[in-house]
Amino acid sequence: MRNRILFIVATIGVLAGLVSAALFAVRTKPLSPVFAPAANPYEHGVYANGIVESLQESGENINVYPEVGGTVTDILVREGGRVARGTPLVRLDDSVQRATADQQQAQADAALAVLEELRAQPRPENLAVAAAQVALARASLKTAEEQRRKNQAAYDIDPDSVSKMVLDDANNAAAAARANLAVVERQYELVKAGAWKYEIRNQEAQYNALTRAAAASRALLAKYTVAAPVDGVILSITATVGSYVSAQGTLESYSGGASPILVMGTGDDYGAVRCYVDEILIAKLHDLEGLEATMYLRGTDVRIPLEFVRVQPLVSPKIQLSNQRTERVDVRVLPIIFRFKKPADIKIYPGQLVDVYVRAP
Prior knowledge:
It is a single chain. This protein folds into four domains: 1-55 and 268-361, Efflux pump adaptor protein, beta barrel domain (Elongation Factor Tu (Ef-tu), domain 3, Beta Barrel); 63-92 and 224-265, CATH 2.40.50.100; 99-117 and 200-221; 122-194, Orthogonal Bundle (Helix Hairpins), CATH 1.10.287. The model has no long low-confidence stretch (mean pLDDT 87). It has helices spanning 2-25, 95-120, 124-157, 164-193, 197-222, and strands at residues 45-54, 62-64, 70-75, 82-83, 88-92, 225-227, 232-237, 244-245, 250-251, 258-259, 262-265, 270-278, 292-297, 303-311, 316-317, 332-341, 353-359. The protein has a six-stranded antiparallel barrel. It has a four-stranded antiparallel β-sheet with strand order 2-11-7-4, with no helix packed on it. It has 361 residues and is an alpha+beta fold. The two termini are 83 Å apart. The radius of gyration is 47 Å and the shape is rod-shaped.
């Protein structure tokens, strides 16, 4: 009985092994690729990673930063929208700066009012008062002179008719009236002359200083509205209503780093590709001006010819594609910029990674 059981178990094991061997020996047909991988179209071609950008005469995409810090109150554009140069893009809270500008403008207006007052002198009412004072002083002098003359005549006829003290008082009164007339006449001339030229010059300087301060405040107030620096298309908007932005940009939600509040592109019929050639392959590219290259869109079998634009003559660490400034970098690359005509039936966006082959002699 025991031998029979062992025989059955051994037979089952042999059958299981044969079935397993048969199953594992069957080869499954590999799946066809979703798209054809990028193949080198040149006999001697140099491969490079590339990133799509908007076509610029120099530089990359247009990063827009505010010149002042503040809380975002309005975002006036949408991603993908076309804007003209000077179009308002984002508004920041400008309540404090607006109050400061209004205050400095009010100070400039007050200084102008004082300056106009000085220039308008003499005031007719003040001149009339001064003229009346001159007339009164002349009348007083006439009265004092008459009184002195009468006393002097009486004294000359009969010295005993007028005391020496009365005659002296009459002479003193006449002298005082004459001096008072001289004072009011000079006062009249002073009023008639108007404001002193140095007072006007000083007030003009104060008015000019306050006017320039008000103009500077208004200019700073205008910075709280971020405008488009060029004609173009809004590629991305990082800022949101209620978020705080500064001259360094805004805090990007996903990477945690500082980024521009907007990114713009030119949106022309042509796009640009910035490809990064490994430093060990640079020696294979001799005639940079006559470079020929082809771009492959990842995930498709589309290939687009490229036209050479320029070389950024600075070999730098290969961190542009990942933007990770703290990663360890062992490869340095040379950026070369090409341009291409955007196809009508395929959407190509800035920031898209592509494969580039550059023809080497």
